[in-house]
Structures are given as C-alpha cells and as structure tokens.
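Hi U.,

Before I forget, here's the chain from the pilot set. I'm dumping it here mostly so it's searchable later in email.
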Amino acid sequence: MDTRKLGLILLGISGFMIIIAFMISIIGVSDINEMDVEEEAIFKGIDGDITVDKYDTYSVFVTSIYSCKEVELSIYKDDWEYFFEDCDSLLNEDGWNYIGSFSPDFDGSLEIDSNQQILIINDNVYFDEGGFEILISLLFCCLGFFGIIISIIMVFSSSSKVTFRENIQEIVIINSDAPEVVIPDDDSTQTPEWWEISGENKL
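Structure:
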C-alpha cells in the first residue's frame, strides 16, 4: 500500500476520533451540569468547622438570593486565612452562586465564620461526575489532530514524489576518454597524394 492511501486512511481514522471526542465531552459536561451540589456538599451552614485534606481544592457557594459581595466569610486556622474570594458567575450552580475557593496545606480542620448560609464541596466531585469523560475527550481530540497533521504530510509528500518522477528527463553521459571520431565532409576538397601529382605532370 502506497503512502498516499495510508495517509487517507489515517485521515479518516483521525476525523472519527475527533467526532468521538466531541460526543464524549458532551456527555461529561452534561453529567457535571446535572450534578446536585447540595447532595455533594461536605458543609452547609453559617458557621462551624470542616475537615479538609491536604492540597485538595474546595469551592464555596452562597444561596442564590444573595450576591457574592453580600457575603462576609472567613475560613481560617488560627491566624491564617485560607478563603479566596472569586465572584465568577460562570461557576454558579443551580440555586447557588459561586463566591470563591480555598486549598489547605495540611490535613485537619478549618473554622468557618459567615454572615450567610454557605455550601462547600470538594472539587474532586467534578472529576467523579464528568471530569474523567472530559479528560478522555481531550486525549482523543489531541490524537485526532496529530493524526490529521501527519496524514496531510503523508498525502502531500506522496504527491510530490509522483510529480518529481514525471518530471525526470533522460540524461546523456558523455565519456571524455573515448577517441574523437572525425566525420569527413563530403563537400570538402581532398588533397591529392604526391604520386597522383607526379602522374598528372607527366601527362
């Protein structure tokens, strides 16, 4: 099988992988959108304490009747504040507004003090609900794009080789060591030999 046919086959497979990646990503995003944050919450209330795992990331929400700026929240350990406010509406969930996050650098518990009811979830639930599907779709998508690039290179390189072969011209090699061949000219006057000249004079 020539390079051009292999390139076309690879192009078809790569395109199919991108389609599969798109479908898987839709499933993953749909699963995340259908997630109920209240069911996944590890804390819901105004104040108290929460057990956390080292380097895990936690998202904090407030009920949707309040805006991010209306919440006064502190999540702390001794004198160290861990909560970072981030009023990103793109991360809002159904009935809850996203107000920020925190990531502890230890295993243990944190104190919570708020003026409104808040809800906290471990961001690992996003991976469990649909994040894995999204990662798989990204992998398939990357492989598909690499395959398309390689297949295009294969097809064009094959076409270039065919064009080069068609344009090859015959090359005549002249051997410089061969003896020179002199072809007599029919119109040239030949010089008579001496005996021919002597015979003519006697006549």
